[in-house]
Design brief:
The strands form two sheets. A four-stranded mixed beta sheet has the order 3-4-6-7, with no helix packed on it. Strands 1-2-5 form a three-stranded antiparallel beta sheet, with no helix packed on it. It has a domain of about 90 residues. Helix content is about 15%, strand content about 35%. It starts with a helix and ends with a strand. The chain is an alpha+beta fold and about 140 residues long.
Length: about 140
Amino acid sequence: MKTKQFRIWVFAAAMLCAGALAGCSTERTEPPSEPDAPVTHTPSPDETTTDVPDLSTRAVLLDEQTIELTTYGSSSCPDEAIDVDPVDAATIAVQLDNETDERPCTADYAPVEHTVDIPAEVTERPITLELHWQNSSDSATIPVE
């Protein structure tokens, strides 16, 4: 019985040694491969641009009687030009309102175009707009381009 047990132990030890030696004897010729990196595109200097869209309030003279005023804000709660008054021969005051009716507004930034009729009292060029937002301390003075 001891001989049979001895043979089992010798066989187990031999298998253990063979496995250990087999693991040590394998030689890697290549480094382990890394997962494929995502394909990216690095733009060349000719492809890069520093153009940033102009998202500021602006006014453009369409003709001698009309100005196009562009404001930016939430598309679901847009500004509305509610009052236009001459200040002097070259300045127009525009009252803007943003009625939300206590409803939530979207968090986007969209342009809203307003057509502003030039009052007859405004005869000089260039024209300046004084913008005032109702129920707010916000105001801006911008030239008409």
